[in-house]
Every structure is written in C-alpha cells, then in structure tokens.
Design goal:
Layout: H1 13-29, H2 34-38, H3 40-58, H4 64-91, H5 96-115, H6 122-133, H7 135-144, H8 149-174, H9 183-189, H10 191-209, H11 222-233, H12 242-263
Helix pairs in contact: 1-6, 1-7, 1-8, 1-12, 3-4, 3-5, 5-6, 6-8, 8-10, 8-12, 10-11
Length: 264
C-alpha cells in the first residue's frame, strides 16, 4: 500500500509552497502553541485529501489502484475532520465549524474543476489559492481563540500576494514569444499581471489609510510589484526556465513572509 503513497502527493511545488506559507502566516498572526501545532495535521491532511480524491475519481473501474488509494483517502479525511472536532469540543473553538464549511465548499468546487480539467485555468487556480489562504485565519483562530480585524487583513493581503503570481507566471510561461518582442507587445501580454499588482497595492494602501488593515501593510507587496514591472520591461533573449521561475516565486514568498512578520 505504501507504494501508492506517492499518488496522494501533489506534484505542484507552487501549491506546496503556498500551503506552507499560509500556515506560517497563520502562526505569525496567531501564536506557536499546542493548538496551532496540532492544527497543522488537518491543514496538511485536507490538502492531501483533495488531491487524493481527485486521483480516486479519475481512475476508472475496475482498477486495483482505486482500492489501494482508499485507505490513504480515509486517513486524510479522518484527520481533516477529527482533529478540528477535538479542538472544537475540548477548547471550545466553535468558529472552526464555519471555517470547515467554507473549506468543504471550496474542496467540492476544486474537485469539480479538476474533473472538468479546469484546475489550471485562471479561475481554477484562484479558487485553489482562495482555499489555501483560508488556512491563515483558521490557524490564527485555532492558536488564539479570537478573530480580529487584523487577522482578516493579513488573510486579504496574503490572498492578493499569492493571486498575483497566477498572472505573473502565466505571462512568463504562456507569452514566451512576447518576452523578446518590442515593449508595446510585452506590455500588452503582461497587462493582466501589471494591472492586478498595481490595483492590489493601491487597494491595500487605501485600506491602510482608513485603518482597515495595518497602515504600512502595502509595503509587503512592493517587491512583487517591482518584480512584475521588471519582468515586463525586460526584454528576454531566451525565455526563463520553469524551474527558474519557481525558485524566483519561492524567493519572493520568503521575502513576503519576512516582511509580514516585521510589519504586520
């Protein structure tokens, strides 16, 4: 059975990095204690359950792989449900129930999109990021037992940060001919990335000015805004490799985590 464990592990390294980053952001916004560390179990299990269930549905009957995947799916599902139930009953963290309802709905939507082969469309990727980013307020609540305005602000900023990568990476990967074209063509191809990042920066700045989020929160997005403009203004002789893009995104995620820890 163990040899089928690899089938339950998503191969999207970006999704793994977002999962880890969102959990760390939850710890930054909340606290490192027994409850938040225990909450890592359903966070990871829910992530693996979604992928495993999609794999399970894709296998046509009859197939021995379906029977061998079922124990892993059952384990992940059990951890996703039983650990939060323990936190709810033992610690009185009743707001985990609506969090669970929202995540269950997003789980169903993502599985449907996966079945329709739309998981790598813009709306499919944004749905996945929305679900992963919900880990942030859920972890904060599990750690502190409280939900404050700052918690929602951290989630909102993080969602914008990770969502911007969807447009930035699509420009670098799917507009390879434009990368070496004149500036006008590059601006046209990368307009979605530039507009999204600029709009995000302005929205967070305005929210900070009105006290909706921490006043200096917009500074966490400045590195990725500069990244987006550099990518479009630069004329590439050869397209960047997918691996190189992945390491760049990971580096920016680490910078974002550091800035969030300092500023937020």
């Amino acid at each position: 059975m163990s040899k089928y464990l690899s089938m339950t592990l998503p191969r999207q390294h970006g999704a793994w990095s977002i999962l880890a980053a969102c959990y760390i952001l939850g710890l930054i916004g909340g606290a490192i204690n027994g409850r938040s560390l225990l909450f890592a179990l359903p966070v990871a299990a829910g992530f693996l359950a979604r992928h495993t269930f999609s794999q399970f549905l894709r296998i046509k009957k009859p197939d021995v792989r379906k029977a061998l995947l079922f124990p892993w799916l059952s384990l992940y599902a059990a951890l996703s449900v039983l650990v939060p139930l323990f936190l709810i009953i033992y610690y009185g963290l009743w707001l985990l129930l609506p969090f669970g309802g929202i995540l269950a709905l997003l789980f169903a939507v993502s599985v449907i999109l996966n079945r329709m082969r739309q998981e790598i469309t813009v709306h499919g990727e944004l749905t996945g990021i929305f679900g992963l980013s919900m880990i942030i307020p859920a972890t904060i609540y599990a750690a502190t037992g409280e939900m404050q305005k700052e918690n929602i602000g951290l989630w909102f900023i993080s969602f914008l940060f990770f969502s911007g990568s969807v447009f930035h990476v699509r420009y670098l990967v799917r507009s390879r001919e434009a990368l070496s074209s004149p500036l006008k063509e590059r601006l046209k191809a990368g307009s979605a990335s530039l507009v999204f990042y600029l709009a995000s920066l302005i929205i967070v700045y305005v929210c900070g000015a009105y006290g909706i989020v921490v006043e200096n929160a917009f500074a966490t997005l400045i590195p990725v805004v500069l990244k987006a403009f550099y990518a479009v203004l630069r004329r590439y002789e050869t397209p960047p490799s997918v691996r190189g893009i992945g390491f760049s995104e990971l580096g920016h995620t680490i910078v974002f985590l550091a800035l969030a820890a300092i500023l937020l």
